[in-house]
Amino acid sequence: MDMMSSIAGMAMGMQAAQLQQNVSLSVTKKSMDSVELAAQELLKMLPSEPGLGGQIDTYA
Questions:
Q1: Model-level pTM?
Q2: Residue-wise pLDDT tens digits, 35-44
Q3: How far is CA 45 from the centre of its chain?
């Protein structure tokens, strides 16, 4: 009976580790999506035309 409880304990431990890995991966994906959206918003705020210092006066 000791061997059966040992196997059952190992199986439960493996399931807990799998669940922890899945949760960690899910949180990481959500974090990456959030960072991607923030980067897209920052890119939208960049001016489309060159601003001050964007042109060089070669006739000076």
A1: 0.62
A2: 999 999 998 9
A3: 22
